[in-house]
Amino acid sequence: MSHYTSHADLGGLPGFGVVAPAPEGGLFHADWERKALALTLAMGATGSWNIDQSRAARETLPDYLKLSYYQVWLAAIEKLLQERSLATAGEIRSGVLQQPPLPVARVLQAQAVSAALLKGSPVLRTPAQPARFSLGQHVRTRSAPAGHHTRLPGYARGKQGVIERIHGVHVFADSQAQGLGEDPQWLYGVVMEEAQLWPERVSGSGAQGLKVSIDAWEPYLEAA
Amino acid sequence: MPDHDHDHHHSELSEMDLRVRALQSVLTQKGYIDPAALDVLIDTYQTQVGPRNGARVVARSWVDPQFRDWLLRDATQAIASLGYSGRQGEHMVALENTAERHNLVVCTLCSCYPWPVLGLPPVWYKSAPYRSRAVKDPRGVLADFGVHLPETTEIRVWDSTAEVRYLVIPQRPAGTGHLSEDELAALVTRDAMIGTRLAKDPAVEEAA
Question: What pLDDT score does B204 carry?
């Protein structure tokens, strides 16, 4: 279980240098990047995998940090296609069909794109039970690694915070990523103080007047 | 835009061009995708959905107190009333900057971003420097954008760890009471709606 490694959990890691601002526009550096985006959205629309499985495929690429953003997306589609036998490595390399297709749930047609994008994929679900935590309540996040795709960042594990928002019951990323269905759970906005998150920085160079909010599903939390 | 899609020739096709071309070809042959849908998807995010949408939301909130209240109470519905909704903006929260609190949005785990109002994220938003530092050294990140806030201002960073997407409502610059809603929208940059900059100050723009 615990051998799952995400290479995308970057919050608080040192050594990546300064941010390079850029003007609005200029979102693509090459034509293939546009195509990588569109292929990702079009294949996502087939329902062959969900968004959390897609994120898991990306963050577990061993060379994640060496690849550009759209190289990551492209490598993830190729991986997902092969895992599901939707295409073989040889087909992906050659571009030539060698095996008959497998059925997919749907194919996104050009005339349906606008409506599909405007609709999106809402993840809010009807509660099956009341929320366990209430506004203002002190909580602590899970400290153990998940052992699978999760949306609790490493820097926020085993930390105290306060429930600041209750977003409703949302599809649970951890379960969806493992193919266990939607497993909807209460989702909370949890705010954490910088002394809680970065005690060594605060006692060293000083506090910045910082608070960090994360969105955390109920299974990430216990009462503090 | 530093794009190069009109000047490529077959001899100049990169390894990545060839790889994507092969993938598109096999997925089309398999019948998993409609190649015409790819063009519509690209056109949507290249020419239709972008940060001018969000700027109109912000400008409306500056001139219409009722809309502002609605936006802060139920951003998804308020934003949808202006025609912006859907993919990667299904569940919106608006964050109002004040003299006491400056909001900054990040996704440390990937690149979650409110597409219907801001379009696709810029490269720096998806980059390791931004994702690693925003939650630990946001004042350093703001300095990279030339922004320096008073020490007394709380910096609130929102890490987009679920499917809730955040839009920052920057502070309206002083002395803009005479401007129209469209003129106000022109002051609202993409970066101001992420929280890495402030809205443009027309007084400063003129002096510069």
Answer: 83
Contacts of B37 in chain A (CB under 8 A): 38, 42, 108-110, 112-113
Q: Which among B11, B61, B107, B127 is annotated as catalytic?
A: B107
Please name the residue of chain B whose CA is at the shortest distance from the CA of residue A101: B30
**Phi and psi, residue B180, nearest 5°:** -75, 170
pLDDT of residue B53: 98
Asked whether residue A202 is assigned to any structural domain, the reply reads: yes
Q: Is the CB of residue B99 less than 8 Å away from at least one CB of chain A? A: no
In total, how many domains does chain A have? 2
B9 Cβ contact list (under 8 Å, min separation 6): none
Provide the residue range defining the domain that includes A103: 31-119
pTM above 0.80, yes or no: yes
Reported ipTM: the value is 0.97
A149 and A58 fall within a common domain:
no
Q: What is the rounded distance in angstroms from the CA atom of residue B175 to the CA atom of residue B172?
A: 9
Mean pLDDT for the stretch of residues A150-155: 98
Q: Is B14 a catalytic residue?
A: no
Residues of A in contact with B30 (CB under 8 A): 86-87, 97, 101
Q: Give residue-wise pLDDT tens across range A174-188.
A: 999 999 999 999 999
Contact flag A155-B135 (C-beta cutoff 8 Å):
yes
Task: Give the three-state DSSP class for A159.
Answer: coil
Domain that holds residue B168: 50-207
* pLDDT, averaged across chain A: 96
B107 given a catalytic annotation: yes
Active site residue B25: no
Query: Could you tell me if A112 and A175 lie in one domain?
Result: no
Of B195, B123, B167, B134, residue with least CA distance to A153:
B134
Q: How far apart are CA B141 and CA B81, in angstroms?
A: 33
Provide the pLDDT for residue B12: 61
Active-site position among B14, B25, B85, B110:
B110
Lowest-confidence region among A184-193, A197-206, B27-36: A197-206
Instruction: Calculate how close chain A gets to B142, using CA atoms only, in Å.
Output: 9
Give, as one character, the DSSP assignment of residue A67.
Answer: S
Report CB contact under 8 Å: B145, A21: yes
DSSP state of B47: I
- Of A17-31, A158-172, B114-128, B150-164, the one with minimum mean pLDDT is A17-31
Is B110 a catalytic site residue? yes
Inside any domain, residue B3: no
